[in-house]
Amino acid sequence: MLPYRLSFEHPIYLWLMLALPVLWYLGFRSLGVLGKTRRALALLLRTLVWTILVFALAGVQLVRVSDVITVMYVLDQSESIPSAKRQVMLDFVVRNVKRHRDGRRGDKAGIIVFGRDASIEIPPFDDEIRLRRLESLMDRSDATNLESALNLAQATMPEDTARRIVVVTDGNENLGQARKLVARVAAAGIGIDVVPVMLDAKSEVLVEKIDLPSDIRKGQPFEARIVVNNYTDAAPEGGEPTKGKIRVKQKVGDNESILLEQDITLDPGKNVFPLRHTIDQPAPYIYQAEFVPDSKDDDGLRQNNSATAYTHVRGQGRVLLIEDRSRLGDFDLLVSRLRDNNIEVVTQTNDNLFGSLAELQAYDAVILAGVPRVSGSNENEIVSFTDPQIEMLVRNTQQLGAGLLMLGGPEAFGAGGWTGSEIEKAMPVDFKIKNAKVQAVGALALIMHASEMADGNHWQKVICKSAIEQLGPSDLAGVLHWNFNGDAWLWGGYPSSPGLLEVGPNRRNMLARISKMTPGDMPQFDPAMKMAVKSLSSAPASVKHCIIISDGDPSDPMPGTIAAFKNNNITISTVAVASHGLAGSQRLQKIATQTGGKYYSVKSGRALPRIFQREARRVSKPLVYEPPGGAVPEVIFPHALLDGIDRVLPPVTGFVMTQTKDSPLAQVLIQSPKPDQPENATILAAWTYGLGRTAVLTTDAGARWASAWNDWADYDKFYSQLVRWLMRPTGDTGKFTIATSVKDGQVQVVVNALANDDSFLDFLEMNATALDANLNPIPLSMRQAAPGRYVGSFPATTAGSYFVNVVPGPGAAPLTTGVTVPYSDEYRVRETNLALIESLAATEPRGGTVGEVTAPLENRASEELVETNAFRGGLALARSIRDAWPWFVLGGCCLFLGDVMVRRIAFDFGWVSRTIKKMRGEQDSATQVVTRLDALRKNKSQIDEDLQKRRANVRFEPTRVESSDDQVELSDIGQATSKSTETKSVEAPPQTSYTERLLEAKRRARKDKGE
Fold this sequence. Notes:
The protein contains 23 helices and 44 strands. It is α/β, with parallel strands linked by helices. It has 7 domains: 4-65 and 883-904, no CATH class; 68-198 and 846-876, Rossmann fold; 204-313, Immunoglobulin-like, CATH 2.60.40.10; 318-431 and 626-726, Class I glutamine amidotransferase (GATase) domain (Rossmann fold), CATH 3.40.50; 442-618, 3-Layer(aba) Sandwich (Rossmann fold), CATH 3.40.50.410; 735-811, Immunoglobulin-like, CATH 2.60.40; 914-952, no CATH class. The chain has an 8-stranded mixed sheet, with helices on both faces.
């Protein structure tokens, strides 16, 4: 049987082959002049050209039929499969392939493993499988996605072979729908065998869920129900009771309290425990129920011993005010006035900040009241906003619609180290001054001495970068280090200030140089400090500062060097890192004290970036603008939050300069007449950021700069309207309802929208967002699925609490809810799903027979199971089809050229025989003729000369030879040349040459004359 045969995509064109007889008839008559051979060859070529073109029109194809079988073993590696049986699976595959694969036929085998996702362990190849353990990295095995495994198996197997999938599973899929996919697999001619994995019977306790009412209100008692299921010997009924302890916790942010903890006895089957409780404060709450068995034998899995539930209790609008612990009391008046206006305010200090986004959800607005990003005077007192906390603040506004207000102060905005943070991006102003006319310039020199602490050089690079990133674009910065040849600046500077460069245009290059820096062990402080004071003293900056990081080992600087720093108002802060005893610490402390700087003693490198962020703020002091005589702010833009406010505002004595954002959405409402650059004189600005609103008030709330506002008649109205404008809308949500559900790793969000007259609200543009437990935003799009019904979904593949915020429309109160994704269904008690297993095997593949449900996989691969031949027949032979018509067209064109050549060109093939004779060393007849003619001409000339001599000796000469015998015809020569040379074995008949006949004629003439 040939492996290839022809087929046609459009066989109707084959009827054109009936035109061949006509083609032969016409060609036989018109090609008669060519001779028999050439005519026959031309007709043959024309026949081939016509046939090939007809085949091409018919869509000729090459079909390859193969009896090779490819078997993919799909192995379930999810958590529901006992670990011992996972190795048994592999042993079964190895033995089954070795016993049944036909190597002569070229059968192929491969392995796919799957859990939540599928992965190729071994691609299909034509050899035995020699594998001792499964090596694919299974990212997630907490789910069973049989559909993805079948899909991957179909895509992996070559289509030019017969195909079969052998699935080894317990059938308990909880992601995807294999039943729907199997029909497509069968339609592709792929057979399916299933090896069932039987699950062992054992005792198991599951905390299934916590039921909470959907409409919990502040101060209203409610009842929660904890549902616990006790499976004994894999049977929910008829077993022994299980003893243990149940514990119920309530979480609000990082605060956790135990509501219930008691010993219980679980009867076989479902057990329900009620819990009565009252919530006094509006906030999002997470309830967690956990069961701890007295005996480990009564519970197989620990992962399913807890369940969580989420609820969000709303109340009156609340505001969180965060202040610096070192400046307590600066905003007490503001807090008191807001509370007098029925705004509930909760205060926090920056050393006791929120710990989760859920905690922020309890507040409708957050006020950063003149608080710096980092504060504290030594390692133990240093506190700061962490990057996750800053991200929470931004997400709470952008994604969840809360308000965010920044109030000014000497350590706020850019002067407080907020430059370059995510907070700056959320505000309507930038914290960096970009106007060169505003002389808010500071100069910072960093002296780096290699420390002996763990990863010392790494931390030096980190702190240098932290300091550079805190500086504004107009600030100057330089780094001094010991490069083993002496003290040197890390980069060049200006001629007047060597080593100091403007940060703005050079920031990226500075950070790159710092990354490559390798500080050496500096022997003494004095040379480096002299270089620093020389450059700083000549720098065009209003604030100059130097930071030294060292272990205190270098020798003391000269008194004159310290005096130079003091005379030029340059402060030095020192950081002792792994200092060399008391002497090293005292040396660094003395330098800082003498110049009016700060001294820090650090034992952990992780505290260094926060210290340098704080110290770098010293050069940002020019951002604090305190004009002589103060300034009277002016309202320059009417806004809803200023409605009813007197346009004549009290004066302020100072504020923090900022830069208005280059965006039409940023609105500057109040501005100072000083300085002359209006883009740097913002007092109040606001805008909408994502789903929330943010605002800045660059002066304080009356403690230092705005003390004249304390007695202002509109003080209460101004601040209360500002805060209320920022707050997340908390009005009645009307007839909007929101619900969530979890299925197949997806959270579905459903919003029902009704008007006050119960009519459907259609075509609403809803803004929605979701956040996972790690605060990562998840895209959520709401679409209208029915009148008044909007549906959206997002993936939730990890267990935990997810937050959902939906704003139905402009100005509408957001619909906020949460959903808790429980532990995976893998950890629930399940029996082997024989129904699914049998349905997979019973699906008949196209052109084949149904698959088999083999003997079950036990604790070892039984001989009966191994004897199941996965490489048996019962499958449709594989047919691979490839279009051949392009090659036929090409061949037809080539043959057509041959046809033209045969009819137009007459070929002489005599050169072939001549070439053969030449190779044999024989002369051809033409060469012999030429040789004879040359010899004849030579003899003729010789005879003519002899005749002339003889004529001179005789008395008369005959003028004519009349004998007909003496006449020589040229045709005789032609006939001589045309005759073939006889073989050497046969003697040629005697011939008389022309010369001989000529001589004979002369002899006869003489004889006659003599007579």
